[in-house]
Amino acid sequence: MQKKNPPIYVTRPSLPPLEEYERYVREIFDSRFLTNGGALHRRLEDALAEKLGAPYLRLFTNGHLALECCLQAFGFDGGEVVTTPFTFVSTTHAIVRSGLTPVFCDVEPDYYTLDPDQLEAHITPRTRAILPVHVYGNPCNVEAIGRIAARHGIPVLYDAAHAFGVTISGRGVAAFGDVSMFSFHATKCFNTIEGGGAACASEDFAERLSRLRNFGYHPDEEILEVGGNAKMNEFQAAMGLCNLAHFEHEIERRAAVDARYRANLGGVPGLSLRPVPAGVRTNHAYFPVTFDPESFGRTRDDVAKALNAYNIFPRKYFYPLTSAAACYRGRFSPEDTPVALAASERVLTLPMYADLPLSDADDICEIVASCRQ
Ligand code: T4K
Question: Which of 39, 53, 260, 337 has a 20 to 30 Å separation from 117 between CA atoms?
Fold first, then answer.
């Protein structure tokens, strides 16, 4: 097999036909409205609320700032947030940067999402919120989490960065919990270049988010919050409007890659693939493979090296655990979440994007399978 040229990365953003983006750019040039809630921003906000099935949606310049604004919108004065360490470090940073303390609950072994059976043991009188993460396009056990949160009267903020377009029994993931944060980063299956959104059912909460992303301003010029600047601009909104029109096709093409990977790798001993929970329509955001070093005979890192030799660059999402990040060293105990720790050492996310030729998916599987000893 030849070295891939150009290289194959873990993802490759989908772009709309250039003429479609140009049409919106012309509108922006004509209106001279570049940011601060322009016409395209308003159109995208409405379209995404409808798409995600949420009464209210607010756009942000990126997912991380959306997460921070959501935490600030609750108005907590210190305290703890129960979350998981098997996530992108943004989740944990948002908690810490909001003056709150993350308390790490382990994940369950099939989907790597917060384990509801262990959740209650982490709730104390200091708990202010639960921040579970939908991982790779697989949603959390939202029913069980919702029941526990209701019993304790604690709000749930979902990190839905990976879950755009995912549905559970026909309902969008944004229908669960008090608020859900989505990432529209270039590497996600729906992108606005950089971007994010927060979807919720409370109009008051949504209005608070609007103020927090715009220096705390209320439309009548009162400054009601200590807000920052987290506004999405018109060029980002234009990309979102274009990509939204192609989203269902994007998912179909990803599903074909996913099916090819599953057909090729499903029977290989020593590796396991994540199942999709019953009733869930996933978005095929990532394709994680878990390698058991004993039965596969090689480690996840060995497989990554073998792929790198062919100019193929999978990623170790998520390594290290956020609780093991250098900036948090000594503050948390990663060994207290053994399922998450094992996942962080064993998972490799293979290239997954709509444009990935199925013949390249076959080559990737051949290299992976050939690593087995
Ligand atoms: N919560 C969770 C669970 C998240 O996963 C994330 C973000 C967030 C919160 C925060 O949301 P945002 O604030 O980002 O909206 C990437 C992304 O930057 C990040 O958005 C994402 N999660 C995370 C899982 O992955 P890196 O540092 O791994 O990305 P990078 O630049 O190495 O890109 C990966 C590969 O993609 C590159 O090797 C090449 C390819 N690529 C990348 C970009 C940006 C392209 O082909 N074109 C591009 O424009 O973090």
Answer: 53
Pocket test for ligand 1, best of 15, 89, 95, 185 (most atoms within 8 A of CB): 185
Distance of alpha carbon 83 from alpha carbon 13, whole angstroms: 29
Alpha-carbon gap, residue 70 to 74, rounded angstroms = 7
Sheet-wide strand order for 196-200: 56-60, 196-200, 179-183, 157-159
Q: Is the dihedral of CA 289, 296, 265, 356 positive or negative?
A: positive
Q: What are phi and psi of 115, to 5 degrees?
A: -85, 110
Q: What is the dihedral of CA 261, 347, 277, 246, to 10 degrees?
A: -60
Give the ligand 1 atom nearest the CA of 135. 3
The model's pLDDT over 92-137, given as tens digits with 9 standing for 90+, comes to 999 999 999 999 999 999 999 999 999 999 999 999 999 999 999 9
**Residue 265: what are its φ and ψ, rounded to 5°?**
-105, -15
Q: Which residue's alpha carbon is at the smallest distance from atom 46 of ligand 1? A: 12
Rounded to two decimals, the pTM is 0.98
Tell me, using a 6 A CB cutoff, whether residue 322 lines ligand 1. Answer: no
CA distance 209 to 50: 18
Residue 57's CB is within 10 A of a number of other CB atoms, namely 24
Atom of ligand 1 nearest to the CA of 12: 46
What is the maximal distance between C-alpha atoms in the chain? 68
Measured between alpha carbons, how far is residue 119 from residues 56, 93, 105, 366 in Å? 28, 20, 6, 40
Does 349 sit in the ligand 1 pocket, CB within 6 Å? Answer: no
Structure tokens at 280: 């869930």
What is the residue with the minimal CA distance to atom 39 of ligand 1? 9
- Distance in angstroms (rounded) separating the CA atoms of residues 25 and 206: 28
For ligand 1, atom 36, name the residue with the nearest CA.
11
Q: In what order do the strands lie in the sheet with 280-281?
A: 171-172, 167-168, 280-281
As given in the structure block, the two tokens for residue 275 are: 């199942």
- For residues 132 and 143, the answer to whether their CB atoms sit within 8 Å is no
